[in-house]
Amino acid sequence: MDKIKLHQIDTRAPKKFQKEHTKKELQELKFRLEELQNVLFAEGKHSLLIVIQGMDASGKDGAVKNVFEAVNPMGCRVIAFKQPTAIEMKHDFLWRIHQQVPEKGMIHIFNRSHYEDVTIQRVHNIIDKKTLQQRFEHINNFERLLVQSGTVVLKFYLHISKEEQLERLQERMSDPEKMWKHNDRDMKEREFWNEYMHAYEDAFLHCSEAAKWHIVPADQNWYKEYFIAKKTVEALKGLGMSYPKLNDNIPVVL
């Protein structure tokens, strides 16, 4: 694939999309997602892994909450990957990730993921170039294994502008309902903006073999949520699922 250049991709919705109409479509997609998730859970033949990446304040938490609010909690788990613990650091970088992949019938959502290990660790020179290339290879093999085992992998990068990010970070310091999200380190990380863009672009280029990346314009939450919901519904519809018939539930006695 050609290398994605993030500065060439708009962070706002295409002009043909109108806010109110798109929000109505989003509600319809949520209902459809609820229906499809029920069939996924009942059939138990496939699973769905959704990976959400993005810069600080790009709206990862909001996307998870608002897109999947109608989904049955019994069939969906959200895993937020933070800085690795001391025990996790004693294992390979995919050890903690592999434990959280979805079993058949489930949707798992990664709020940040194994891609932190080829972006933030690269930006801060925690790993060298050789290790970076090795990790790209491991990620491709890992995602290929998931796909071959019946897991659909959807990867979303929430593409926010530097200006919109600053506005949202500042809002966290003034809005009482959002102050809990404030972290002094977020402003410091803005100094590495260009380095992060290059790191993500390389990740898109080298880690799209088993599951391609979707670049989501994220300056407007209503479009970001619509985009994710639409791609998720399309992926589930593509599985051709159906509810098991009565005889399908009769256990086989060996």
List the helices and strands and how they pair.
Blueprint: H1 19-43, E1 47-54, H2 60-67, E2 76-80, H3 86-89, H4 95-98, E3 107-111, H5 120-123, H6 129-148, E4 151-159, H7 162-172, H8 184-189, H9 193-206, E5 213-217, H10 221-237
Helix pairs in contact: 1-10, 2-10
Outline the structure in words.
By secondary structure, this protein is of the alpha/beta class. It has one domain: P-loop containing nucleotide triphosphate hydrolases (Rossmann fold, 3-Layer(aba) Sandwich). The chain is built from ten helices and five strands, in the order αβαβααβααβαααβα.
Count of runs of 4 or more consecutive helical residues: 10
Strand order of the largest sheet: 2-3-1-4-5
Label the CATH architecture: 3-Layer(aba) Sandwich
CATH topology: Rossmann fold
Provide the CATH superfamily.
P-loop containing nucleotide triphosphate hydrolases
How many domain regions? 1
Structural class computed from helices and strand pairing? alpha/beta
Q: SSE order, as H and E? A: HEHEHHEHHEHHHEH
Mind telling me the CATH class?
Alpha Beta
Write down the Rg.
19 Å
> What is the number of beta strands?
5
* Beta-strand residue percentage: 5-15%
